Amino acid sequence: MSQQPGNSGATEEYDVVVIGAGVSGMYALHHLRQMGLSVRVYDGATDVGGTWWYNRYPGARVDGPGSPFYCYTFSDELMQEWDWEETQSEQSAVLEYLEHVADRFDLRRDIQFATWVKDARYDEAAQRWTVETDTGVRASARHLICAVGALSTTNMPDIPGIHDFAGECYHTGSWPHEPVSFEGKRVAVIGTGSSGIQAIPEIAKEAAHVTVLQRTPQFAFPAGNRALTPEDLADARENWEAIREKMYANMGGFPHDGSKGSALDDTPEERRALYESLWQRGGFHFFLDLYSDIAISEEANASLADFVRDKIREIVHDPETARKLLPDHYVICKRPILEDGYFEAYNRDNVTLVDLREDPIERFTPNSVITQSGEHPIDMLVLATGFDAISGTMLRLNPKGRGGVSLGERWQDRFHNYLGMTVAGFPNLFMIHGPGSPGVFYNMPLGAERQMDWIGHCIQHLQDRGMGAVEPTTDSEDAWANEVSAIAGATLFPKTDSWWTGANIPGKPRYFSAYLGGDIYYQRISDIAKDYAGFVFEPVQDADEANAS
Ligand SMILES: Cc1cc2nc3c(=O)[nH]c(=O)nc-3n(C[C@H](O)[C@H](O)[C@H](O)COP(=O)(O)OP(=O)(O)OC[C@H]3O[C@@H](n4cnc5c(N)ncnc54)[C@H](O)[C@@H]3O)c2cc1C
């Protein structure tokens, strides 16, 4: 294996460089070490955790199926020893878990924190990647694994005068580490996606006034958060093997048996009864125990959308505010949102809703936001405006592949990839949770493990055969794109504007890029790994000879 000099100034040599020390990069490091490879991880953050290191806003919690199943599955001991406290663990609890994982597997010694990778270039002669960081490190590795996050590049809104605003201004996705006080302050929040809907009720409890600047009304479902009992934890531990099997077999990587049949086979009364029972129970069960055609049939979708709109009208006292909160897109075709007191917050005297579709922002001043209807004086601005999701952080890294061609050039019209992990012209580069993979449509720690296991297998295959480089063909990329589109095309997802379709970022290719097949994806990539169909392997080149010629 390669040497690891680690001396500053000289180029450091590794088998693998991993970018990112969130859930994915941490597992990548552990797995690659188990393979006996030398690995260096870089992260711009000052410690492990990625998403859970950055998103410290009030109300930030797991908003998937929840604990204890938002976790790693690779270590039985880890599962047995960790005590989760709530079903929807708060940010600090997930971060604590990840810090424990870093300690337990001694990960930090191979991670360089507070270090941004500002350049990554493929050297065709050496068949290696060279990365350069903002701290002056230069490192070379055979393989580059980009665990850069599907939700890690914040989306900053471009609104006239926003930079003139002189008060405190925070983005939920890069929240300060010091406590933020809302006491006595007039706070404006832009954005009512998952983060805004988690944060607004918490901010409203403390602030003098909250003005919610809503661009799109949302369907949101009760989070149903509750304390995990000793029985819950004992049950999860005793049945862990069976639960893990279930997670592997489930479409979204969750320990669930799957959904009911078609909504259209039930009467309207039966449908309402199911929706009501799920609403009362709360949590991600709403989506997991739901009819299987809610995101496929317009009629099925409308039945659930009507139910939620009725709930909003019931909860929100002021009919005019309730009207503004009624969403009109296909339900669950934007990221399903779990809420805890969001709609109730509008019954407070200190919360005002501004519907930007009727009353758009004209500009910010140093101490206010001016909408068409008038001026709203504010002391603080909270940007809950989400992320340049899925592809944004890869494009920010913008690696340069064969012939110096950048990813930005290759991804101008769409995010060309094969299996959501590799890109033609970028040999030995692998993405975790990239476009073309299930990514954000899957229990993400489990998805990271399964993709990383595949990548490890591919690296091993390359080494065993004495090969120096592997990359997909453009034909296999095109076939994969067709497969991804065909699956998505059978649903209502591509017909709905969302960050899944790039609609929140001006100029971004507008299409649905995630592989919606869930567990089928893992079957597909495992089948492909039998002979690596669609990939080209290149023998190890003698770098000296190649340089001389
Ligand atoms: C509030 C919130 C709640 C969520 N809840 C759930 C949930 O319930 N279930 C679920 O499955 N998912 C959830 N997610 C998605 C979450 O992002 C993933 O579950 C998971 O944490 C992603 O891990 P990751 O390691 O792939 O990426 P990240 O955690 O985003 O880590 C990427 C890391 O890469 C680093 N990085 C990027 N580019 C560079 C560079 N050029 N140089 C150096 N470092 C770089 C970043 O600093 C970051 O630390 C949630 C996300 C948010 C924001």
Overall outline: globular
Mean pLDDT, to the nearest integer, reads 95
* Class based on secondary structure composition and strand pairing: alpha/beta
Q: In what range is the share of β-strand residues?
A: 15-25%
The radius of gyration is 24 Å
End-to-end separation in angstroms reads 27 Å
- Tally of DSSP β-strands: 19
Number of helices: 18
The residue fraction in helices comes out at 25-40%
Low-confidence stretches: 1-7, 545-549
Key attributes of the depicted protein:
disordered C terminus; alpha/beta; single chain; 7-stranded mixed sheet; disordered N terminus; 549 residues; binds flavin-adenine dinucleotide; 18 helices; 5-stranded parallel sheet
